[in-house]
Design brief:
The structure is a single chain. The chain is an alpha/beta fold and 317 residues long. The protein has 2 domains: 201 residues, Rossmann fold; 86 residues, UDP-galactose 4-epimerase, domain 1. The chain is 40% helix and 17% strand. It contains 10 helices and 13 strands. Helix 2 packs across helix 4. It binds guanosine-5'-diphosphate-alpha-D-mannose. The site of guanosine-5'-diphosphate-alpha-D-mannose has 23 residues, from helix 6.
Length: 317
C-alpha cells in the first residue's frame, strides 16, 4: 500500500511514518520543504521517499500526488502552534487552509480515489462550558485563536468536499498529544527542556511558565498516530471523530509530574510573555464515537509519556 504523509518530518508525522514502516506492507512517501529539519526522520530516511513539496504551491502538490498516487493520505502538515497564529494569522490561514485545498483540488483533478485523514483539532471547540464536558463531536465550535479558526476551516472543507464531490475525507479532532520529538515551544516539551537545561547547569533553577490553570487531555503521540491509521481504515467518509484519552489534567498537574522526575529544587515563575490573548481553558474528549467504531484506546500512561519526553531532552541539551 502506498501512503503519503504531509508533514512527515514533524512530530506526529515522523512517529506515523515509523508505525507505517513497522506494519511491513506500506510504502511510505512524505512531503518536505527544502528547509525542513531532518532530525526526526534521521533514523528512517533510507526507508521512506521524501518529496520536495511546499503545500502552498499547487503545482508542486499536483506533481507529488501524480508521482505517489497514494491510497492513504495523512494530512498532518500545518502551522500548529497557537501563539504563532496571533503573530502570523495570514501565514497560518494560508498554510493550513490553502495547503489543504491544494491537496483536495489535486485529488479531484487527477481523479485519485485516495482516502485522506485531516488532522483537525480540539482547539476548534475553543470556548467550552463546564456542562459541555466531556466534549462530543456535536459541540458548537467556538474557536479562540486564528489557529483554531484555521482548523475549523480545514474541518468544514473536509465535510463539504465529501458532500460535494464524494471525497473520502475523514476528519480527526485530535486532542493534545505529546511525547519524544515534541517541538520545544509546546508546553510539555518546553517544560521538559527547561528542566533538562537546569539539570545541566545551562539555565538558572527557575522554570518559566504561562497559564497553569488550563486543563488539557493529553494522549501519547504513539497512541495518537495509531488512531489516525484506524480513522482511515475504519472511519466513515465525511465523518468527524474526537481522538483523546477522555481524561484531563491541569497544566500545573502535568508540570508537577515532570518536576517529580527531577531531584533539583526548581522555582516556578510566571512569565507574562507566555500568557495568551484568550486561552482555551478546558479540553476533555468524549471519545466514545471513535473508540466504539475502531476499538482504539490509549495505552501509554501520561507519566510514562512525560518521562520519555524528559529523557529525550536530557539526551539533547
Ligand atoms: N506553549 C506553552 N508554553 N503553553 C503553556 C505554557 C508555556 O510556557 N504555560 C502554560 N501553557 C498552557 C497554554 O496556555 C495552554 O493552555 C496549554 O498550556 C497547552 O499549550 P500548548 O502546548 O502550546 O498546546 P495547545 O493546547 O495550545 O495546542 C496544542 O494542542 C492542540 C490540540 O488541542 C497544539 O498541538 C495544537 O497544534 C493542537 O491542535
Amino acid at each position: 500500500m502506498r501512503v503519503l504523509i504531509t508533514g512527515i518530518t514533524g512530530f506526529a508525522g515522523s512517529h506515523l511514518a515509523e508505525y507505517c514502516l513497522d506494519r511491513g506492507d506500506v510504502e511510505v512517501f512524505g512531503t518536505a520543504r527544502w528547509r525542513s529539519r531532518m532530525d526526526n526522520v534521521s533514523g528512517i530516511v533510507d526507508d521512506i521517499t521524501l518529496l520536495d513539496c511546499d503545500l502552498k504551491d499547487a503545482v508542486a502538490v499536483r506533481h507529488c500526488l501524480l508521482e505517489v498516487k497514494p491510497e492513504y493520505i495523512f494530512h498532518l502538515a500545518a502551522q500548529s502552534f497557537v501563539p504563532t497564529s496571533w503573530k502570523a494569522p495570514i501565514e497560518t490561514m494560508v498554510t493550513n487552509v490553502v495547503g489543504q485545498l491544494n491537496i483536495f483540488e489535486g485529488i479531484r483533478e487527477l481523479k485519485l480515489d485516495s482516502r485522506i485523514q485531516l488532522a483537525c483539532s480540539s482547539e476548534e471547540y475553543g470556548m467550552v462550558y463546564e456542562d459541555e464536558i466531556p466534549i462530543s463531536e456535536s459541540n458548537p465550535l467556538r474557536p479562540l485563536s486564528p489557529y483554531g479558526v484555521s482548523k475549523v476551516a480545514q474541518d468544514l472543507l473536509g465535510y463539504q468536499y465529501h458532500q460535494s464531490y464524494g471525497l473520502f475525507a475523514v476528519r480527526t479532532r485530535g486532542f493534545n498529544h505529546t511525547g519524544p520529538r515534541r517541538g520545544d515551544v509546546f508546553v510539555s516539551s518546553n517544560f521538559s527542556k527547561q528542566i533538562a537545561m537546569i539539570e545541566k547547569g545551562r539555565q538558572e533553577p527557575v522554570l518559566k511558565v504561562g497559564n497553569l490553570e488550563a486543563r488539557r487531555d493529553f494522549t501519547d503521540v504513539r497512541d495518537m498516530i495509531k488512531g489516525y491509521w484506524l480513522a482511515l481504515e475504519k472511519g466513515e467518509p465525511g465523518e468527524v471523530y474526537n481522538i483523546g484519552s477522555g481524561k484531563d489534567v491541569t497544566i500545573r498537574e502535568m508540570l508537577d509530574i515532570l518536576l517529580g522526575f527531577s531531584t533539583l529544587e526548581i522555582e516556578v515563575r510566571q512569565d507574562p510573555e507566555r500568557m495568551r490573548p484568550s486561552d482555551v481553558e478546558v479540553l476533555r474528549a468524549d471519545n466514545t464515537k471513535f473508540c466504539g467504531l475502531t476499538g482504539w484506546k490509549p495505552e501509554i500512561p501520561l507519566e510514562k509519556t512525560l518521562e520519555d519526553l524528559l529523557n529525550y531532552w536530557r539526551e539533547r541539551v
